[in-house]
Structure formats: structure tokens, C-alpha cells
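Entry
Fold in C-alpha cell form

___
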Amino acid sequence: MATISKRKLGWRVQIRRRGYNPVSATFDTKREAEIWAAEVEAKMHRGKWQDADESSSTKLSEALQRYLDEITPSKKGAKQETNRIKALMKIPLADWYLTEIRGKQIADYRDARAAAGKSPSTIRNDLTIISQVFSTAAKEWGMYDLRNPVENIKLPKQNKSRNRRLKKGELDRLLAELDKPYHDAVLLLLETAMRRSELCRLTWADINLYQRTATLRDTKNGEDRSIPLTPAAAQLIAAQPQRSDTVFTDLKPDSLTHAMHDACKRAGITNLHLHDLRREATSRLVESGLFQLAEVMRITGHKTLAAFSIYMHIDAQALAQRMPTE
């Protein structure tokens, strides 16, 4: 029999029926609670409620842990997603059962994060994981009647894309504060538009100095790609000591990021991130006029123009200098 009661966060339904575990859920309105209760009781009467029963006894924290164990390890950004999921497992909402979480609870979480000063992109990333957990539970874990509450709310607007590029004199000041191999790694990023992970995985077997090409393996989009090397890039690679299979022995993405951050601080350079070098390199390739946009996209590894445009911030002065004077 269903019991519906008013709670601070909405209307709570509790259903107890012989042969089934107790089931509960919370809704924004009494009408929604009544409809859900009727649907559940009808399925129990027909003996078909067992498919969705697990969602009423599974907490969000438990679903997050299962997602972390089964889904996250196969992703490219597994490390970053692991940290985000572990943080989500500590929020108050993680102690709620999946069937209790509705759009209102997700909206309240969104608003609380915004009030705490979290950026729209951070909030969107959190909500994306929660949404994926609900979708996976419904499609792959047998919780067929489970609804995805994230689909019922408005996501924060995307942050404006960064347009930070190197200013006059900044590169020299930055390089002066960097020791090898970080000094050479930064220069190579600017010459190739590689991602930091691609540079750190670069092996000698993937370099052809005679043809001045490099093959990047296991890239972000899951495909290998070959890129041309400028004479400066080829010289930088050739100058590295061959102590292991990788060009930059023991260089890790995070250590490169930290080295860049610390060097910028010592050089008095503000608001410059390691990933901004990819935008700088991409923009320089376009400004050079040597390649068509499609060719630059092949070099950078972007599949769509929308994604590519985030990394292309053209200097109007550079374009003006290429225009005829009369």
C-alpha cells in the first residue's frame, strides 16, 4: 500500500507490499507522487516490478562507485573523471536513493555549487557524470524505469572560450625560467600544436627526422595521426638524449603543467596556462597562410570546425599585414 506524505523537499511516496522490498521516492508535486505510486503498484500487481526494484535500493554513491569501477577505466580522461566522481560521492545528494532524486534535487545542487563560486564548466562536468550514471543504470544495469533527472533541468551556460595568446616578450621570459626538458617541451608544443599527453607519449619509433614527420599514437579522439615537423621542431627532437623509448624520458603531463605554472609565476606572467600554447600554435599555423583550414585541422587532430575554432584566435594585425596595401 502506498503512503504519500509532505516533506520539506517535496512529496515522499513509500510503498510496502508483501513479496517486495520497501520502495520510496520523492517528487516535486503530490500529483507526480500519486501517478508514480499507481504505476509501481500496478507493476507489483502484475509481478513486473523486479526490473526496477534495484534503483529504489541503490544510493547515488553506490551507483557512482559502480560507474567508477566499470565505465571510467576505459575512458581517455579516466584520471580526471576518477577525481571528480570521488568528490561527488561525498556530497549530501550521494546518500539519496536513485528513485528519490528528481529534477528539483539536481537543480538545488546546481544552484548550491554556483553560489559556492564554482564555474559553469565545473558544474556542467559534475552534472554530466551524474547524468551518465543515471543513463547507464537505466540502459545497462537493468533499472529500466529509472528516469534521468538531469534531463529535466537547465544546465549552466558554457564558459566563454579562452582567447589567451602569448604577448610580446612573454615567451623569452617564460623560457628563461624553464630548465630542460621543460624548456624544450614548451618550444616543441609551440612548433607542433600537440597536446601535452601526445608530447609525453612521443617515442623515437614514431619520429622520422629524414621526412620531418611524427606519428602521434592513441590520441584524444582514439586515432593515430601524423604531423609535419618544422625544421625547429626536428632540431629540438634530435637534440634530446636517447635514454629510453620515449623522446622526453620520464616527462609526465602533470609535471609539465606544474613546471609551466611555476615558471610563469617566477616570470611575472599572469593568466597563461600550458594548454594556451596549443591555441597559440594553432593560431600561428593559420596566420602563416601556408595551410588550408582542413590541413591545419589534420595537424591539430580536430574533427569539427566548432571544436577547432576554440583553438583558433587570429591576430587581426597579422592578417592585416598579409593584405595588399592598395
User: Anything to note?
Assistant: The chain has a mean pLDDT of 86. The chain has 14 helices and six strands.
